[in-house]
Amino acid sequence: MKTIIVPSSLHLVMYQKLLKEYSNTIDVQVLSLNSFLYDHSEQELNILYQYQKKGESLRDSNTYKNSFNDLTFLKTCLSFIRFCKLYNVKDFPEHTQKDKDLKELLLSIYSIETKEDHIKPIIDFQSVYILHKPYNDIEMKWILFLLENGAQFIDKKTQTNFHYHSMANPKKEAQWICQSIIEKNYNACDCMIFTSQESENQVLAQMLDQYNIPYTFLKKTINSFILDEFNSVFSWIQEKTLSSFLNMIQLLYPEIYKDMNAYYTSFPDSIYPSFHLEKIEYEKNYLIEETDFLYLKNAESNIKQWFLDHDFLLHLTMNDFVSICEIIQNHHINPSIEDIKAYQYVQDCYKQSFDYLKDPFLLIQYLKQSSLTQSVKEIKGVCISSLNDCNGIRPHCFIMSANAKNFPSIVIHKDIFNENYIQNTTLPSLQKRLSFQLQQLKDTLFQMEDCFISYAQSDYEGKTVEASNDIKEWIGKDASFIDVKESSNYEKTKLFISREQAKDLFFKDSIFSVSRLESFAKCPFYHYLKYGLHLREPKSVTEVSTKGTLFHSMLEHLTTIYHKDYIHVPLIEIEKIIKDEFSFFLKVYPNKKTWVEGQIIEYSQKIHRVLQQLSEFENSWHMNIKEQEYKILKKMEFEDMTLTFTGYIDRMDTSSTSFCIFDYKSSKKELRKENFQAGLSLQLLTYTIYIEENEHLKPVGCFYISLSSPFIQDEALHISYPKDNQKLGFVEPSNSNGLDEYNRQKIISGWNFDGFDIYIDSKEQFAIPKNTLSYEECKEQWDIIVNGLLKKMKEGDIQANHVENACMYCKFQRICRNNRKEVRQISFIEEEA
Predict the structure, then answer these.
(1) Which of 192, 329, 424, 828 could bridge to 93 as Cys pair (CB 3.0-4.6 Å)?
(2) Is the pLDDT of residue 696 over 80?
(3) pTM of this prediction?
């Protein structure tokens, strides 16, 4: 019987070729080099555990003693031991102390059996045929041995047609391969593509799909969460931390993970909760919304019941493997074949490490680094394999990314057993090993009937890629550049929904907040996610420090009690009010006590400074505070619907005939004409129009009051440098310090209308732009702007076309990704004109 030595991933391709040429394979067996040589099923993990155990017996002074807990180090040792056993090398250099330490290490583990200790007897070398492919320096030993004893390569008789080209980028390269297959009218079953990087496979697959070319990846990655699930339990057993616990819950109990993640984000102090929220009833405050509190309370209740049903998880050990398997099995009621293979792999790894389970660290790391693949059961169309397995089984071969970095792909030893170390042993020299690898690769290329070699001149980041000198030398020509033409113009996905969908999503209850309209003007896609799909924006408790709600509540509280004298409230009284405001927060988050104490001090000082700033305004302002947190319900007819716009006016001041609107902002904000006409600043004018229509008062202005504390540079000390023979001196700064400048900041910005000057003595704290509109113009344009926004919304526009800076604080950036595009804000007034 003939034996053909072929990598396992190529067995089906070889059998297909044999059937095509000889119609049967009765007297032929196709084996991998490993299967042909070794009769020992090696347990790699068990060997690594034995190595680790041997490491404990090394001298304490040995440099590498502590490295035996590192999986990568152990694998490096095993790889080198294999190399040495192939050539029966048992003597190691000892020129330096490092060499002596390595020798002690290698001799301590050399006797542990590997597959190289179990070689099958070979009876008939004459019937062994070897496929030409790029064999590495470990395989070199056996290839040369087989050839010396009568085995032979499978050689073809025809001449190779070489095609050597370069393209602009990897995408163009994949496209060129597809176009070549079609233009040359090749049968897909006669083609093979060899890639040097796994990252190329996705782009290649997309192109083959686009050109309707059937294909098969000869090595299929096993897509299963089984390894991760087992590892999450093992990691939890090894180190019972909140992080490992949540990782296990996320994988095995996703139905409770959302509650747990939210709850432990707020209360991360202990894995087993105190369940204190069940004793707390909600109290009105400005820091915690009732819906958020009730959500946390409900999550706590669910978690408490879950712990009652799953208490055993807290006490799992590595000896409870049967129980762990039951947990995984219950999570996969209908397991796939890939799940079963992954499950069997973990069982095998567990058996190999059974005698060493006191410390599962090595098992955990081994599973983490495991990338399971399986050979395909059937092949169709173009076969895609790794450059390391390139061959001439099929007549038309394409080699991708054959640049100077990837081609030729040769093995050079690095790390601790590097080439400098190897040259001091009796192992084959670097020159001999490199010559063998290069010759094997060259011979493989000349076994192909048509060999298409290509590389991209730059990567996706635009970095230049160099050509391979070896290819030029072997085939005698340079790569010619091909400008690959696109088969079709690529366009980003346009995001639209139908008018019917838009009506169902956006106009279902006919109620709109003003901020919602503004969000649509900023980014239709954000509006779609938040108000159409009702996605919740992620937030944490620490975001309280950036919200303006506390400032709002404080100003409302102070003005209600003290009226216009609120600006004179002392700091100690402010601290007391803020402390009361945080009282419920502390009941919910007792673990945040230190943080809250800092917040009370910080907020008290900030609010006190804001009151100082507002004092000049209040002393020169001649209206009275009429309403705070005043709810509006403005109705509007739009096509066949009656819409209601809602919102809350922070503060409305009035006289007997007039009114003025104020809105508190935690950061500085300006009311600009272009923003209003683009629909980005509708809030103030919507409130103003509503009051004018319903209260029958005359509007004199609408303004933002900034509650932020700007940074002011103040000179602490001035150094007087000496001149001539004078001494170095220090000059104290003038009495005019940063507080004066702070108080001069313009913290009120907006628009004033006719009659405003009657009610104000000084406009020093007002930032009023010159280019504004009259109230009549505002009212007329508001109707055009809002109608324009609503029409776009109803047409189903959900494009991620956003205005400048809209993405800066957006919590949905990961969703829109490369679909986002910054656009110039559009004026609805200009469009109307």
Answers:
(1) 424
(2) yes
(3) 0.75
